[in-house]
Write a structure and sequence with these properties.
Elements: E1 4-10, H1 17-24, E2 31-35, H2 42-49, E3 52-55, H3 62-76, E4 81-84, H4 96-104, E5 110-114, H5 125-141, E6 153-156, H6 157-162, H7 175-184, E7 188-192, H8 209-227, H9 231-241
Parallel strand pairs: 1-2, 1-4, 2-3, 5-7
Antiparallel strand pairs: 4-6, 5-6
Length: 242
């Protein structure tokens, strides 16, 4: 993990981010916390805990904060690999070596940490949407996808450059990104991980309207990216622009 930068989007996570970083930093010494326009002391707390911080002036949403982190990483660092990691304690640093291993072996460009490969079962509207989108992504790409909504990811620098394009979703980058990358010619893989309950007990897909919006938006986005004919050209564009 010495040659890997961990990018952590965070929105109003001051209460728990120090605890998350205290567990993460011994396993991954290079962490960039992207404070997504928080109203609390998220950035200051993360900096005091030992992380590098990037504070956004306004809230961009999860995907927007991730993209800001990728842009900073591509333009201001030389790391060959990146990992995305949630600030709320759901992700376990013990799985990071397994997550980056396919990248190190040259077997994949984008690796998803799948809780379902590890036998986890979840019953909720979000879980039903995940199963549906995993099946659709598998059919659209010809590659098995079991966890289309995982936020625990590892990716190469070349993939990060592509994620700076306007194709990258600003709210929920999930199954549609997997479809886009596969159709661009990138290799994707999954490794088994275990997730923990969020320390805050909240989810970005909580409530009734949010899951419905997510399902509708993701359905449209997957169809759009599965049928675009210019994705190979957009990949070349991203490499030339970076």
């Amino acid at each position: 993990m010495r040659d890997t930068l961990v990018i952590m989007p965070a929105f109003n996570e001051a209460a728990g981010i120090a605890r998350t970083l205290a567990e993460l930093l011994p396993a991954a010494p290079h962490v960039l916390v992207v404070d997504d326009g928080s109203a609390d002391d998220t950035a200051a707390t993360a900096a005091a805990a030992g992380a590098e911080t990037l504070k956004l002036a306004t809230n961009l949403g999860y995907g927007g904060a991730l993209q800001a982190g990728f842009r900073y990483a591509v333009r201001r660092t030389a790391f060959p690999r990146f990992v995305t990691f949630d600030a709320d304690g759901q992700h376990d640093p013990a799985f990071l070596p397994a997550l980056v291993a396919p990248l190190l072996r040259g077997e994949a460009d984008y690796v998803v940490g799948s809780r379902f490969l590890a036998g986890e079962r979840e019953r909720s509207a979000r879980a039903s949407g995940n199963r549906l989108f995993s099946v659709v992504a598998s059919l659209a790409t010809g590659a098995p996808v079991t966890d289309a909504t995982s936020g625990l990811l590892a990716l190469t620098r070349e993939v990060a450059k592509v994620l700076l394009l306007d194709l990258f979703p600003q709210d929920y980058p999930d199954a549609d990104v997997i479809i886009m990358l596969r159709r661009m010619g990138f290799r994707t893989a999954e490794v088994a991980v275990k997730m923990r309950p969020s320390a805050s007990g909240q989810s970005m897909h909580s409530g009734i309207l949010r899951p419905l919006y997510y399902i509708a938006k993701m359905s449209v986005s997957m169809l759009h990216l599965a049928t675009r004919g210019d994705l190979a050209a957009r990949r070349k564009e991203a490499q030339l622009a970076s």
